[in-house]
Design brief:
It is built from 13 helices and eleven strands. It has a seven-stranded parallel sheet, sandwiched between helices. Strands 7-11 form a two-stranded parallel sheet. It has a two-stranded antiparallel sheet with strand order 8-10. The structure holds NADP nicotinamide-adenine-dinucleotide phosphate.
Length: 292
């Protein structure tokens, strides 16, 4: 059986991949890369092999990647240092002669600096290019915008306030649950035929915040309205409310991206990979906002 190594295993996506993989084939031949072993108690209990390593420490990665057939490489969440992290991981995978590298990238329409999310996209583009030039067998999973981060943008009080207030216009996104993305990763890790392929990983319909407000209205029985200010009005309102600049910048960048169609990629590949319908927005909102 192939030796599989999962990075980012203490995070949301990586841990979901480990859990599903262990359920499917047991813990033998599964290793996880962890930078802080004290966070890995749950992983240890699953019986997988723990390897210590840090994306900022090249040699720790080379050591951890020895003998690995399939490397599930979770993109770094450290935006400031992400490019250097991604360079280290790909260089270490080459040095350790990893058999197959599976990278969790990011959907976007625009690859150049004109993109409102260029600061996020650039280190994904870098990783994709390094991987393609590496000579290693690869699969690039271009993940949709996580449905799971929508509540962070919309706020946890929308059912009380009755308003979604975001500068995303009538733009649509194919928002997809992180758990389905984990299932796509498991499918690629446990089946053949994915070498040197790039997959769009998203649900098959795109929705605007008008659509999301309508679904929430139907589910809650309360009128939920979507109000779409422009970026300047949104920024002024958030500053007035005391939201930190970083939070405002992230909301404006992602919402401008949504408005411009950067995340509008309805696709069937995810459904084919996991062999079932991915979680739809209605069920996602039901679970998230505890609505029946
Ligand atoms: N498509 C989207 O909408 C979207 C949204 C959010 C994030 N993302 C990307 O998808 C990735 C996975 O998402 P997630 O929700 O699972 O993120 P997460 O919960 O923040 O997990 C990130 C993982 O990366 C590990 N990590 C960070 N820096 C590291 C380093 N220097 N060395 C080794 N490991 C390191 C973290 O380890 P610790 O537990 O030790 O911190 C954690 O296990 C993120 O890292 C980010 O790049 C995509």
């Amino acid at each position: 059986m192939s030796k599989i190594l999962i990075t980012g295993a203490t995070g949301h996506l990586g841990s979901a991949v480990v859990n599903e993989l262990v359920e499917k084939q047991g813990p033998a031949n599964i290793s996880v890369l962890v930078r802080d072993l004290s966070k890995a108690t749950a992983l240890k209990e699953k019986g997988v092999e723990l390897l210590q390593g840090d994306y900022s420490n090249y040699q720790s990665l080379v050591n951890a990647f020895q003998g690995v057939d399939k490397l599930y490489f979770v993109s770094s969440n450290d935006i400031m240092n992400r490019a250097a992290h991604h360079e280290n991981i790909v260089a270490a995978a080459i040095a350790a002669k990893v058999g197959h590298i599976i990278y969790t990238s990011f959907q976007r329409k625009t690859d150049d600096a004109s993109s409102p999310i260029a600061f996020i996209a650039s280190s994904h583009i870098l990783a994709e290019n390094l991987i393609k030039a590496s000579g290693l067998k690869y699969t690039i999973l271009k993940h949709a915008l996580y449905a799971d981060i929508l509540p962070m943008f919309m706020g946890d009080q929308i059912l009380n306030s009755g308003v979604i207030y975001l500068p995303a216009g009538s733009g649509k996104g194919s928002f997809t649950s992180r758990s389905d993305m984990a299932s796509a990763g498991v499918a690629v890790l446990t089946s053949e035929g994915h070498g040197n392929k790039t997959y769009e990983i998203s649900v098959s319909e795109s929705l605007s915040f008008y659509d999301i407000a309508a679904i929430l209205t139907e589910l809650s029985g309360k009128q939920i309205q979507y109000v779409a200010p422009d970026a300047a009005a949104f920024t002024a309102a958030m500053k007035q409310a005391g939201v930190p600049d970083m939070g405002i910048m992230m909301s404006v960048s992602f919402c401008t991206g949504i408005e411009q169609g950067e995340f509008d990629f309805p696709d069937q590949t995810l459904e084919k990979l996991i062999g079932r319908k991915p979680l739809g927005m209605k069920d996602f909102l039901k679970q998230t906002y505890k609505l029946s």
